[in-house]
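Troubleshooting: if your tokenizer reports a length mismatch, compare against these two reference records.
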Amino acid sequence: MNVSNFCGADADTIDVSVYVGLDENGNKSDCFRVISHNGNVSFPDLPQKKIKILIVNLAGKVCYEGPPVELKLAQRGIYLIRFISQETICYRKIFIL
């Protein structure tokens, strides 16, 4: 940033790092894959073990809770998906445009 006036000039630098979401920059190999296209959401390659998913919008409203099935999300927006199994809980973020 450069600031100047009739008294002179001054310059300063500010470094900013922003991280958004849950574990977006971590190792993704321990979670499951999500495919979204035209509002349809599917979960390929899920293991055969019992898994429950929870889908919420950014306002915190629960849009779906139950077993992983192919769904249609009617509203555009950003959704957080939580995969819950006996071994792990992990999150994915999807955009519906």
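Reference record two:
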Amino acid sequence: MTQNDALIDIRLALTGLSLDFVRQGNAMGFSTIRDIVATEPAALIAMEGFSYPWLAELVQHLRLCGRLELLQRLGPANEERQEQ
């Protein structure tokens, strides 16, 4: 496990994210950033408790940690490019 992997596997309460972010994430059933980024975007947005300010805080945190790519999903076009 790399140091960056450790950053996304620690409990939300230990990430340095706001208490509101942690509470909202826990209420949606998330305990780590890995749990969040493993959720399909449409499912995440549809969850009770989701808000765009909450997502913005996650984006800012991942950017500062150098892990913003975790929010990118491979689509069919990207998969085809990788196979070439």
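Descriptive notes for reference record two:
- The chain has a mean pLDDT of 85.
- Helices lie at 3-9, 19-27, 33-37, 41-46, 52-64, 76-83.
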